[in-house]
Every structure is written in C-alpha cells, then in structure tokens.
Amino acid sequence: MCGDKIDDFYAIIPAGGVGSRLWPISRKDRPKFLYDFLGAGSTLIQSTYLRLSALAGEGHVVVSTGERHVDAVREQIPALDDADIFAEPVGRDSTAAIALASAVLARRHGEDVVVGSFAADHVIRGQKAFAKSVRQAVAAARAGYVCTIGIAASRPSTAFGYIRQGEPLGAEVPDAPDACKVRKFVEKPDAATAQAYLITGEYRWNAGMFVMRAGTLLARLREYKPQMAEQIARIADAWDTDRRAAVMGEVWPAIEKIAFDYSIAEPLAAEGGVAMVPGGFGWDDVGDFNSLAALLPSRNEQNIKLLGDSSNLVQMDSAGDVVVAEAGRTIALLGVNDMVVVDTPDALLVAPRARSQEVKDMVNKIADMGRDDIL
Amino acid sequence: MCGDKIDDFYAIIPAGGVGSRLWPISRKDRPKFLYDFLGAGSTLIQSTYLRLSALAGEGHVVVSTGERHVDAVREQIPALDDADIFAEPVGRDSTAAIALASAVLARRHGEDVVVGSFAADHVIRGQKAFAKSVRQAVAAARAGYVCTIGIAASRPSTAFGYIRQGEPLGAEVPDAPDACKVRKFVEKPDAATAQAYLITGEYRWNAGMFVMRAGTLLARLREYKPQMAEQIARIADAWDTDRRAAVMGEVWPAIEKIAFDYSIAEPLAAEGGVAMVPGGFGWDDVGDFNSLAALLPSRNEQNIKLLGDSSNLVQMDSAGDVVVAEAGRTIALLGVNDMVVVDTPDALLVAPRARSQEVKDMVNKIADMGRDDIL
Prior knowledge:
Two copies of one chain form a homodimer. The first copy, chain A, is of the alpha/beta class. Helices cover 33% and strands 25% of the residues of chain A.
C-alpha cells in the first residue's frame, strides 16, 4: 500500500525566494531551488519534484515560479506540462500562488481533490517517513482540515516559525492516527522563547507544508480574503483557455501579497480548522551556509565541509570550514577555522560561519551599491 | 653633484627567487620581481632598474635572471641590451650571478670599475638617501673594500640576517664619512637574539647589497673559491663572443651553488675587508603578505590594505585585512578581521595575517601534491 499513488492528491511546488543568505551561490537568476546544494546530482526542485511525483503521480505535480525562472524549471523538470507551470510576472507571496494552482486544479479535477503545497527549496531525508506523513495529512484534508506537517524541533532555532499542537484528532480521522489540532502558529521567536517552546514539548517547526481539499482552501479564501478569491477565480477561469496570458497579466499584479500562514492558516487555526501531523523525516530549509554545513558530509578529520571538487581544496591547519568550490579554482586555506569561503566565477564570499545569517545584509549592501550584476 | 652619474659604477640586478611566501601572486613563471606589488604602475624590477640607471647611467645596468624569465625582463626593461642580460639555465645562487656579471664587466671596462649588486625584488623609498649611500659605498669600494649597505633595523625581525658594525673607516676614505668596518655577518636570529641585537645599537639588517671593484671581487673569488673563479673566467672569456651559449651551457650548471654572503662577505669580513655604509632610506624585501600590508596605503577607516581595484571589494564589519584582488571578481568580506585574502584567476589563498610566513609551507604542500599548474 505504501508505494501506491494517492489518486486524489495534487502537489503544488511554490518555487520562489532567492535565498539571499546563500549568496553568491544563490542569485536572482539562479535561486537556491535551481542549485544542487548537496552535490547529490539533482537540484533542490528536482528532488522535490521526484519526492512528490512518487506520491501523487506524474501529471499530479505543478510548479509556481517567477517568469524569469520558467525556462530553467522546464529544463530541470522536462516532465512538466507548460499548463502546469504557473509563471508569475511578479511575486505575490504564497497565498496567491497556492490559491491559483488550487483553483485551476479544482476546475480541472473537482473541488474534492486534495492539494498539498511543498516548497521547492527544502531538503527532506527519508522518503518513506515523508510519504507516511503526507498520507495522514491527506486523510485529515479529506475530513475537511487544512493540515500541516510539523517538523520535530531539534534545536531552539530562531530561524523558523513554530506550531503549537492541541488535542489529537483521534477517532475523527482514523487514517491519520498521529494527527492533532493546531492551537496556533507563532512567529520566529527569540532564543529564550524558542528554548521555552522546546521544553514544553508542544511545539514543532512550521515548514510551510499545507495539505487540504481544493474546495476547503477556496471556501476559506472567499471567507478571509474575498477580493483575492475573486481575482484568483478570474485567472483560474481563463487559465486553460487562450486568455490565460491576458488575464494573468491584467489581474495578477494587483493581488494582495500575503503569506498563506497569515491569510488562511492562522485565522483558521483559531477556529479549530487546522490539523498537524508530525513529520518523522529529516528536514532542512538550507537557509544559510551554516545549515548547509550540517547537510554536507565531512570530507576529512578537520570537519571541513566541501561542496565541489575536493581536488580544488588544499588546507593546512584549518578546521570546521564550509567551502564551496564552484569556480574550478584552487582554494588554499592556511590556519583558517570555522569560516565560510564561497568561491564562484564572479564573486567570492569570506565570513565566519557564526555570521552566516548576516550574508543577507551583505546582499542588501551590494544591492544598495547598485551592483545588480552580481546579485 | 648629487644628480651626476657615477661613471665607473656598474649595477648588477640579480633577479631570482620566486617569493613563494607571496603565492598565489608570485609564481614560478611570474616571480615577485615581475609584479607591481605596490600598485604603483611599475614592477619591482622596473623600479630597481630606474633607481640604479639614475645613478649608474643607462648601459651601466645588467640583470642576472633565469632563462625562463628573460623574455619578461626584456619586455619590462626594453632599454637592456641582450648582452647585458645574464640568462641562467639553472639557478646557481648569488656568488655565481654576481661573479659572472662582474667578470664580464671587468673584461669590457677594466678591473677598476665598481660593481654593485642590488636585488630586483626589494622596495626602496627615498632615492636621494639611496644615492647618498651608494656614492659612499662606491668610495669605500674604490679604496679596496667590499662594501655593503646596512638597513636600519626598525624592529627585531627574524626574517633577515644582521650585520654587526665595527670601527668607522674615518679619514681612510674621506668620501665615505659614514662608513665603518663590518665585524661580522650573522644569520637570521631567533626573536630573543634579534631583540638583543637591537638593544646594542650595533646591528643592521643585511639586505644583500654589495658594492666593490670588479678586481677586488675576482681576486677574493680566486682566493676563497678558486674552482668557481676558473669556471667564471671561462664563461666571461666567451661571453662577448659567439661561444657564449655553448660555454655557458657547458660550464654554468656545474658551478657551486652558494650565497655571496657565505663565499665572500663572511670570510672577508673576518679579515677586515668588508665595510658598511648605513642606508638612510626606506627598505623592505616584500617578503610576505604581512610586509606587503605595511607598504600599501590604507584605503579606509578599517585599515584594510587592498592591492587591486577598490570597486572589487565589499566589506561589512571587517578590519585589518590584506586583500589582493587580481581576478577582477567581487570579494565580499563579512566580519573578517586581520586576514589575508588573495584572489587570482586560478587560485585563492585565505590565511590569517599572523601566519603569512607559513604561506611558503602551503606552497611546498601544493608542490608535494604535484600541482605544478598553480605554482
């Protein structure tokens, strides 16, 4: 049973976000989801597609992305139909992206199909455990819930939002034995608050995975964001016609920019309409070079994490570094500890690992300098 | 008088030594003397040539260098005659280099001409003070001394050999009023010894500058190194004939490899035959990136020393770094302090400034790896 496709399930892959904390690997024209961050032979979006098509089946996976990335996505995932790539002329955040794909899928396959949104740039390890969580989430979705998958918080991270769990769904949804209600979603906490969350045992990380019947989502959207619901309906009506481009171009840019967490998940959780199943798989959003380091194998006793050809690295008396060798040049480290060294053909970044989060500020500074050529 | 050429003076520029502590700027095929280390618009050997030809006159300056560098030297100093470039098929250290040039100059112009050897890769500031020292050294040389120029030891460096001064020459050489005898030459000391030297006030740095009559040198060579004297004489006899290449190729490789300090200067100092005039000019051998830093102007409040185009450097919260931007790429430093970052098209070096001396060990490691392509 575990290997079967879930016939009424459609996966949506929102592929947005540059990942500026991963500059200079991640660029405006090559955001992190188009990059093979683990040196595994497939990019993050390719891995995401393979993971989801194994569950939903080919033809049951769609991608939402910026217009500038459509060609790259098409090239990386040749199996995608053009009509299943939702090209956004401007980014309108996750509510619009998920709602449009859901509305189009509802028109094609009926409002009872279950849709699930999974970001293109996350790393997931353990396909079996992932499949188990998704199957339970789909069951909760069929029962009417918007269901999220909560990631076990392995440390008091301040980089993620948290989900506070409530009562088990129990007998209400027999096919989702591990599901519980969500009491609320909370924003990225400070360190002390994150620590307090962990101690309670009631909090999990919010990875932005949402599974629900298309009809459930569209009804909630009409309730919470009626104007957006109308705009999305207009585009969805035109999507599989020759008016797609015209209506998209006219309506899309005016849509409100708001994250799905704020527009739907939070208000609905307050009404008891959101469920959570625990994610029993390894997860990471590869947010910065420090988190990338945790995903890469150590190549040597010095615990230097290398992405790239190891013949390009020469080190003496160095340890704990994260090195990305993308320019094909020799990188010689002498007495360099716990640093990030990212070598690309047109830009080099050097920073202590401890300041990985601030790479974003560096990117902002470069933008302020008008150096769009390297962003 | 000060601006006049010294008619009987000929300058020899030994241009050897890769400068491996300056890798990856300095390479086998582009040793440091061929590089513009100060971003001043002229390479070290060009500056050396200009400094010496201003004193000795054009046509009075010769260069000894490895065969592989002859084309580059000719290109950088078009005024040099081919017969004034002593191309060495293999490096035989400074005694052979200085002796051959001196022997050829003696055959051309007589044994009374004064020759002076000045390394191609040193930085000297203060042409007037330099000229004054050289003029005094030439005067001491005419009186029969091998005369060196001692550099004021501004710190207890362990990177240089030292010269211990003795009695002033005084009335013996009226045109060298600041000259004194050399009691002895001492090797690179450890830190405590260097400190002790400084306290005495009797020690100066040995910059390897030697000025003497050609005849004096050749006589001493016959005395201390008779075999080498014979070999040098054979080559010098053939130099300005069509047998130059044949005799050089036959005799040169067999010559003993020994530094001038050991072969001539030390034993002669013990006999009282070496004099020293103080060098009142700024001097540095640009031995490593830390000493390079001292020579570069600070471009900003953070005291970051940059060699290259400043538009290639973006920094946040970084200070005290030495950055060489030679690859035309953007170098982004975030929270990086007191580091060396040297960016060249095919190799990148990152190291703390405090470990600049060990860059040599890194180069040895790369050589051991068989990576001749980047050496």
